[in-house]
Automatic annotation (TrEMBL):
PROSITE patterns according to UniProt: XPG_1
Organism of provenance: Malassezia brasiliensis
CC per GO annotation: mitochondrion; nucleolus; nucleoplasm
Location in the cell: Nucleus, Nucleolus; Nucleus, Nucleoplasm; Mitochondrion
InterPro entries (alphabetical): 5-3_exonuclease_C_sf, Flap_endonuc, HhH2, PIN-like_dom_sf, XPG-I_dom, XPG/Rad2, XPG_CS, XPG_DNA_repair_N
CDD domains xrefs: H3TH_FEN1-Euk, PIN_FEN1
Gene Ontology molecular functions: 5'-3' exonuclease activity; 5'-flap endonuclease activity; DNA binding; magnesium ion binding
Official protein name in the record: Flap endonuclease 1
Ranges of Basic and acidic residues composition bias in the record: 275-294, 391-403
Name of the coding gene: FEN1
Annotated ranges, domain XPG N-terminal: 1-108
Family from the record: Belongs to the XPG/RAD2 endonuclease family. FEN1 subfamily.
Length: 415
């Protein structure tokens, strides 16, 4: 899900934090990638022409393995060093959200099935096939076996991987903060809310899409929004995230205005509660007035048939009843992660013989390509040779020309 509307909000309010470039620009960079999200995407998207998942001769699903193999190979081709991060145990709050969402989806699917029964007989087979395909994709759930298979594949490819204690996005952000990687690569904006200094989007997009990589700089985002990290997290909670449903009636612009005005989500909710109470009081006063008016004119209208009152459309701002924002805030500000500085990342030579044994020809060629790319000594980035340091006042003073010295004499001669 990510953070609803955050990308468009940053684009409007803090455009300096976003830039786009070709993937080749990332040559020599190390990037932490959310493996669990990629695994889910591959199990859904990598399929045969008939819609079935890719399988081996023995009937085992290989969609996820092929997806990881070729996506990793593509990044290695561009000189990028990926490290994959897998989800650990999900937070209890996220489990509850997933459970409620599953119930809602179940109700929606049941409604669609009932509607499908009313379709014409000649269209029924087509509708059923489409529904079955949609349901099959929705029911895909990565298993421990899927994770273990991908981890073994990455080990054979010489690519480092990490299992997070909890959320993979949070661990990616921690690796970036610790300087172990240049950035976190994910399509979910909540990786930014977890505190990654730099977020890369579209990094793992397929080559056919030809999308530029989008970089979002957290420091510039906070500067553009004119708020500290704590307020930024509150803004993201108000917009809606994996842990909380969005507040109905509050869009990105309204959410930003509320946080900037009241400075914290706690005070925003107090304000909204006060506004809601005032509306309820006005509503009750209006209803009482209408009831008294009806009682006075009841004798005159006794012969008339009462007409039902038109239904009023529900509007305004509504905070969900179950909205544990304090717990969600804690998960973002103090996530459960392994300390980045203690994690060693090593990119090694691929075990080509094990990786390519029994595989088809294109996989063997890929293995050879991978071994060649890893074996070559990569050219370092220019910014890796230099460290830009702020100039001290003393140094600046030394750089100023002495008006009474040689410079002044030369200038006088020219004139």
């Amino acid at each position: 899900m990510g953070i609803k509307g955050l990308t468009s909000l940053l684009s409007d309010e803090a455009p300096a934090c976003i830039k786009q470039f070709d993937i080749k620009t990332l040559f020599g960079r190390k990037v932490a990638i959310d493996a669990s999200m990629s695994l889910y995407q591959f199990l859904i998207a990598v399929r045969q022409s008939d819609g079935q998942q890719m399988m081996s001769d023995t009937g085992e699903v290989t969609s996820h393995l092929l997806g990881f193999f070729y996506r990793t190979l593509r990044m290695i081709d561009y000189g990028i060093k990926p490290v994959y991060v897998f989800d650990g145990k999900p937070p209890d709050l996220k489990k509850e959200v997933v459970r409620v969402t599953a119930l809602i989806q179940l109700v929606k699917r049941f409604g669609k099935r009932e509607e499908a029964r009313e379709q014409e007989e000649e269209k029924k087979d087509i509708a059923d096939n489409q529904l079955l395909d949609q349901l099959a994709r929705r029911q895909v759930r990565p298993t421990r076996e899927h994770n273990a298979e991908v981890q073994r594949l990455l080990t054979l490819m010489g690519i480092p991987w990490v299992v997070a204690p909890s959320e993979a996005e949070a661990q990616c952000a921690e690796l970036a903060r610790a300087g172990k990687v240049f950035a976190a690569g994910s399509e979910d904006m909540d990786t930014l809310t977890f505190g990654t200094p730099i977020l890369l989007k579209n990094l793992t997009a397929s080559e056919q899409k030809k999308l530029p990589v989008t970089e979002i700089n957290l420091e510039k985002a906070l500067e553009g929004l004119n708020m500290p990290m704590e307020q930024f997290v509150d803004l993201c909670l108000l917009l809606g995230c994996d842990y909380l449903d969005p507040v109905r009636g509050v869009g990105p612009k309204k959410a930003l205005k509320l946080i900037q005005e009241f400075e914290s989500l706690d005070r925003v909710l107090e304000h909204l509660h006060h506004v809601e109470q005032e509306k309820e009081q006005k509503k009750k006063a209006t209803e009482t007035k209408e009831e008294s008016g009806k009682a006075e004119g009841a004798s005159d209208d006794s012969d008339k048939e009462a007409e039902p009152a038109p239904k009023k459309r529900a509007g305004g701002i509504h905070v969900p009843e179950f909205w544990p924002y304090e717990e969600a805030r804690e998960l973002f500000l103090h996530p459960q992660v392994n300390e980045g500085k203690s994690i060693e990342l090593k990119w090694e030579q691929p075990k080509t013989e094990e990786l390519g044994s029994g595989a088809e020809e294109r996989v063997r060629r890929g293995c050879e390509k991978l071994a060649k790319a890893v074996g070559q000594k990569q050219q370092g980035r220019l910014d890796g040779f230099f460290t830009v340091q702020p100039r001290s006042d003393d140094a600046q003073a030394k750089r100023k020309p002495d008006q009474s010295g040689k410079g002044a004499t030369k200038k006088a001669r020219r004139t």
